Amino acid sequence: MFTAELTKLKRSSLWIIALILPVLAITTGTINYQNNTGALDGGWASFTSQVVLFYGLLFFSIGIGLLAATVWRVEHRGTNWNLLLTTTRHPLLLVAAKVAAITLPIIFMQLTLVIGTFLSGTFLLNLDGPFPWQFAVIGLLTIIASLPLVAAQSLLSMLLKSFAAPVAICLIGSVIGVASVTSTALQPVGYVLPQAIITRTMNLGSTAISGSGGLTLGDALPIILTAVGLTAVITVLTVGAIRAIKLR
Amino acid sequence: MKRAVALEFRKMRRLRVVPIVLVLIVAVAALSSASLFSGSTRETFDDPTAAPWAALLLTYTFMAAMTSPILAAVLASRQTDIENTGSGWTLASTAGYTPGKLCRAKLAALAVILLPAVALQTLLVIGAGLLASITVPLNVAPWIGYTVGLLLVDIAFCALHIWLAAKVENQLISVGIGMLGAFIGVFALLMPDWLTRLIPWGYFAMISQVSTSGRDVVYATPAYGWIAGFLIIVGIAFTLATRRLDRIER
Amino acid sequence: MSAVITTSNLTKTFKGHTAVDSLDLNVPQGVVYGFLGPNGSGKSTTMKMILGLTQPTSGDITVFGEPLTRASRSALLPSIGSMIEAPPGYGHLTGAENMRIVQHMLDLSDAQITQALSTVRLTEHRDKLVRNYSLGMKQRLGIAMALARDPALLVLDEPTNGLDPAGIEEIRELLVQLAQRGITVMVSSHLLDEIDKMADVLGILSSGKMLFQGTRDALFQHSVPDLIITTPDANAALRHGVTGVPIPEGIRISGVDKDQAAGIVHTLAIAGVPIYEVRRVQQRLEDVFMDLTGRGGLL
């Protein structure tokens, strides 16, 4: 089932976007660091915070919206739905396969981000000290933290035939997510909104956003658990939606 | 042409264009005003030298640069993709409306929507400032200047994305470029001038009426010449590109 | 009878593949012109060129006596109603809203829209979203859009695609009626039976080349139906030099014209072979078509 989903992504431009986005983050982070070595004197910590700043605030989340829309787009053309529903043994397998298909490019993005940051910091900026392994861990943890948004966008793109509408909703959610992280009034929202979960995970130990917590079990565990829980809930909802709407 | 634009509005029914735009406007305004409610900023509200309005405009410029490219891409994609899925290009062509004409009409229609939207967005930000009791008098000119600039740059990017959405059936390209562009737009605010001028998304920064000198925010005059040049180039490119669209055979 | 559409040496090549090859089309006025051919024979491409949606590689097209160029196209279009390839329709709008878009594009009256919708029997579904239409309903909506402008020429690509037998018959009767009113209808199909029942003039295309163009009668004269001689003793007939295939009722002989048939009957009668009945097989368009296009390209 998963291999089927991967085949549908063959020759898709989605991989180019998954490559360019982290590269852009690294490029802009590098340039920014270079220009502001006065204010950013924390070496690796400052650099990684710069790379992740906007990537984690907004663009990673919107990227997920785009990936989800692309993965479901093939089903909405023509009458592919009939083929899909008659070759699936259980709706849950379908949902899981789609989520997995969306997550694969995300893993690719995060790997690119971590490796690229390492390369840039070492060879371009000549930063002192070892590459912070914490950054790599956070990079991978973010993959788990991104699952609720993957599931939510997957649900949206499954239900809506339009490509751009779920991306618009993702953008709105991301903007709300930014607000919830930077203002104290909206902070409770930040615990359940998928985009905010991503932002908070990526900024664990960051020096750019205050109060983001460190890479400690105490700070990370609640986020991860919420992420897993939310993903489960959204998946159940999606299966229900397939049953109720598609398999009437 | 007027008829073609009216037709575009008919096609907008049930595309929920207005709700999407409204929610985003409110969200951006809210984000821009979020800084108003922190303790340290409040102290500046009575102090003319701290230029609280200028600081607010800076945050607004930033947030708008982050979201406007994606908004333009999404609006353009929704309005144009319906032709791809509904065989609209052929239908219109047999009625004498070439694809190029449709695209130009779509741009006009989206421009009509963006005008009140961007104006409202600015008013909401100013309103938030007044609500938060900034007592320093408001210098209206930079705000109007920025709003007009933002509207024009928004329209310019709508033009790009309408063309992309029409040329390439896969909407991932158009919306994806919008997203990557937004990323670039945000960083354009921090890049040196010579670089910002050369990148299309840099113009979200070029229209800024404020800049930082040290820790202070001051009003600055944008480089109107470059902005005008950018808009003219986009206008010519769009006209030529849509003429070429007429020759594409589907 | 003047021709509504004529083409001369019309050719279209795509990157090394010739879709339409030196086509000389002649569609007379006020008829139903059946454009027949296997899939991929160039029917859609030809129709697109006639509508100005595709530019020919070489050759000329004349519509209503005017040469078709980019400039003359806009003057000619309002008199041509068409539906090519997929039926048009914005899924997020209702049938009526879609028709209103066509109405405003062409400056038509409300009456024309209502009439068109009722002609295709979509009036009761006019307020349903097109994304919820069945394939047949979408097809009918497309035909309504073509009819709304009261055209003098209708160009329809497989208009009965997806319709049930009742629907097919309705459309067929409609098209025949329109032709009787003086409207020229150019219909393409690979449903031979349908074209057989409604077309007066046929154009048969294969691999981009026109194999036959003319009236139905002229076509049937081209192909000679088999001769069947009902006799109890087929073998006797074979012994007397008649080349044919034995069948249960007698013997079946292909490719003999009238004189040859008379000769065969004469031979068998003199030889004393009993002849119960001599007749020709009922000719079907399908057989003629297969003969002409060589049974090759229907799939």
Q: Could you explain the architecture of this structure?
A:
The complex is a heterotrimer of chains A (248), B (250) and C (299). Chain A is mainly alpha-helical and 248 residues long. Chain A is built from 11 helices and no strands. The longest helix of chain A is centred in the middle third of the chain and has 34 residues. The mean pLDDT of chain A is 82. With 250 residues, chain B is mainly α. In chain B, strand 1 and strand 2 form a beta hairpin. Chain B has 11 helices and 2 strands; from the N terminus they run ααααααααααββα. In chain B, helix 1 crosses helix 6, helix 4 packs antiparallel against helix 8 and helix 7 runs parallel beside helix 11. Chain C is α/β, with parallel strands linked by helices and 299 residues long. Helix content of chain C is 36%, strand content 26%. Chain C is built from 11 helices and 15 strands. In chain C, strands 7-8-9-4-10-11 form a 6-stranded mixed β-sheet, with helices on both faces. In chain C, strands 1, 2, 3, 5 and 6 form a 5-stranded antiparallel β-sheet that branches. In chain C, strands 13-14-12-15 form a 4-stranded antiparallel β-sheet. In chain C, strand 10 and strand 11 form a beta hairpin. Chain C is elongated, with a radius of gyration of 24 Å. The model of chain C has no long low-confidence stretch (mean pLDDT 85). Chains in contact: A-B, B-C.
How helix-rich are the residues of chain A, as a percent range?
Answer: over 70%
Radius of gyration of chain B: 19 Å
Q: Unreliable stretches of chain B, pLDDT < 50, 5 or more residues?
A: none
Strand content of chain A: under 5%
Give the spatial strand order of the biggest sheet of chain B: 1-2
Number of helices of chain B: 11
Largest sheet of chain B: 2 strands, antiparallel
Alpha carbon gyration radius of chain A = 19 Å
Alpha-beta content class of chain A: mainly alpha
Distance between the termini of chain B: 23 Å
Q: Count every beta strand of chain A, where a strand is a DSSP E run of 2 or more residues.
A: 0
How do the helices and strands follow one another from N- to C-terminus of chain A?
Answer: HHHHHHHHHHH
Please, what is the average pLDDT of chain A?
Answer: 82
